[in-house]
Amino acid sequence: MLFKEELQEIIRLISNTMDTFTTALFLVKGEKLISLAHHSLSPRIRLPMALALEDGGILTLALDKEYFFQEGLTEKGFELPYYSEPEEIKAFMTVRLAGGRGLLMVDSKRSYTLTEKHQKILGHFARLVELILDRARDLRGKLLYSSKYLMVEEMLNHLHPPLASREKLQEGFSRVMEMMGVDEAMVISEERDNPRVLLGYGPLSTQHLDNPLPIRGTPWQSVMEGNSPYVHRGQEKAPFIMGMKEARFPSLIIVPLNKGAGLLGLASREPKDLPVEVLDLVNILGHLLEPSLANLQAPRETPSFSLFSRELKEVMERELGKGNSILLAACKVKNLSDLDKKMGIFETERLLQDLEREMATQLEGKACVFRGDVLVGYRVHGNAKFLEASGKVLKKHLPISSPANGTKAKLEIEWELVTPSKKRDAEEAIQHLLKRLNSSKGLFRG
């Protein structure tokens, strides 16, 4: 029952104000009287209180009158069915709720304690109860309609930070959107000139992952500029993604996330989906996403080449002095200009970023894009044989994400082992490796 705690608090307040023995709120449900809240000093009170109208005794009798009051109950023999055994009740009073849907009752073990003034007080409390019940009735229908969106616990399970990787965040986001039953969903960055799609769900949205999203003339722009939610429901369709006819929907919700974490938008093909009541739940989802999105939008930790070479120099001097060895590797995309033409510069840049991350993961060290189409990275280990095996595996099996259109990148990989007995400084080692890479006639892996 909605507002059950509030109703119980009102019943306690009545008991304290009027110094009653028992106070209870009964509603008529079909052929029964059911108590929503009660407070009693009696150990003989019936729990739970659900009485057939025909067995309601004085309660059923009171339902026929707007106000009902009786003194001297012990002499008159009225039946009080809410007690399991007789109590010495001397005074009884009720106020009927509007429409006869229930009544608010009090009783007392003392004579002459319930007065006309108490009747007025009880009447005021009855009006307050009616307001709460009306509010509960209005909300109940809306919440039942939007019950499929009440997934806060699942949101926490899938999205509560910290998350280990971008992939897990995307996976969790997709699961929650699937459970919510939406058709498309996106989180875009806060950048006004060139916002990027950080998370996506649905066949249209996932196509734009990690790419800029044109928002001029769309609801995204109005939300970003006005910093207020956008809710659209109706037969007329609104644009969720600019320039795509199939990306217009009759039901949209877009909300700004706090702390500049971006915007969250949901779209449905059903005009009556995504009602306003869902907005609070969408805000909860956004709040859960914010810490992870902050990490997602943070500047990449991959260093510039000048920083990379300086750190490599320090690592080589330190680790070689300790007797450790260093695997230095370089990878080049040989058909980069061709990829630009076939895939577009954004997809090609995404391909390089994926390759950079995967190379760094394989080396358990740092990787850096050098001169636009070359990546260099290193790995430190005490066992030179282990590093040599790692270099061979890297050259043969460096993974790379396949572009959506199936275009293949032609990769060439070279590596070199620097040991305490075969020392080089950082600049010399990189220069030697790049020279081998550029002059290599080895097999391309595509």
Structural features, described:
The chain is an alpha+beta fold. Helices cover 39% and strands 23% of the residues. It is built from 13 helices and 15 strands. It has helices at residues 4-18, 58-62, 73-76, 116-145, 152-159, 166-180, 219-226, 279-297, 305-321, 336-343, 345-363, 384-397, 426-439, and strands spanning 22-29, 32-40, 50-52, 67-71, 91-96, 102-108, 184-188, 197-201, 230-239, 248-256, 263-268, 325-333, 367-370, 374-381, 411-418. The strands form three sheets. It has a six-stranded antiparallel beta sheet with strand order 3-2-1-6-5-4. The protein is elongated. The two termini are 63 Å apart. The model is unreliable at 143-147, 149-153, 298-302 and 441-446 (pLDDT under 50).
In percent, how much strand structure appears in the residues? 15-25%
Question: Taking Cα atoms only, what radius of gyration do you get, to the nearest Å?
Answer: 36 Å
Low-confidence stretches: 143-147, 149-153, 298-302, 441-446
Strand order of the largest sheet: 3-2-1-6-5-4
The arrangement of helices and strands along the chain is HEEEHEHEEHHHEEHEEEHHEHHEEHEH
Q: Give the tally of β-strands.
A: 15
Structural class based on helices, strands and sheet pairing: alpha+beta
Averaged pLDDT: 80
Number of helical stretches of at least 4 residues: 13
Binned, the helix content reads: 25-40%
Silhouette: elongated
What's the main sheet like? 6 strands, antiparallel
What distance lies between the first and last C-alpha atoms, to the nearest angstrom? Answer: 63 Å
Instruction: Identify the quaternary structure here.
Output: single chain
